[in-house]
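Protocol step 4 of 5: obtain the predicted structure for the target chain.
Materials: sequence only (see below). No template structures provided, no constraints applied. The aim of this step is simply to have a reference model before the mutagenesis design in step 5. Sequence pasted as it appears in the construct record:
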Amino acid sequence: DAFAVDAGFDEHNIPYDVLWLDIEHTNGKRYMTWDSRLFPEPVQMQEDIASRGRKMVTIVDPHVKRDTSYYVYKEASEKKYFVRTKDNTEFDGWCWPGSSSYLDVTSPEVRAWWAQQFTPQRYQGSTKHLYIWNDMNEPSVFNGPEITMKKDNLHFGDVEHRDIHNVFGYYYHLATAEGLLHRGTDVQLYGEHGDRPFVLSRAFFSGTQRVGPIWTGDNAAQWSHLAVSVPMVLTLGLTGLPFSGADVGGFFGNPDAELLTR
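Step 4 output (structure tokens):
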């Protein structure tokens, strides 16, 4: 499908810069892995896309599938890097992978560890042409109150979630961007001038403009949502977030040809 989409843009003379992969590209919704049946040669795929001047972006969210055979979960759990319940046990919430734990990115140690995960040596199958998209980082918890984390969950320094909720997504975005900054210092990959990170985030806070771009979240394939996207993006620019956008065509539903063209 990735090659078909790429070829389709060329066939119809539609310019594009980035091919985006949502969670279905992973092995059982384990972020930073690949479904070996659908993507048997991810490095070759990225190199082929890059040969035409394009990049690839994969989704990486803060919920981590609770599976001791999954290296990210295993290592983070052993280091006690996850958000805790009020009873000081590892918080178990429900998101796309099912039962999930959430990295406590309010901790500088956890952020530093997370930033080490984006090198090609750690993120197997990734290349210098691959960038990141952070979704669900408010954080979203499907079985939680108001579809987010319990207010009495505990973070670094025993601070309750109620006191850091609005900055959680910012810290996750920051830690991921620091990971790509770290990767960009690899002279063998990028040469002496290095590489600038690109990490798109759904959640944001004051200071996000120093980290990376954001988008306006899950919109619908409706004319009213197209209309409101313009003042939303302009207002974000006025608040100091100039690098932002909205889903073209809408996230929910299917646009007709005229709506998608506009």
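Step 4 remarks: The two ends are 25 Å apart (CA to CA). The longest helix spans residues 161-183.
Proceed to step 5.
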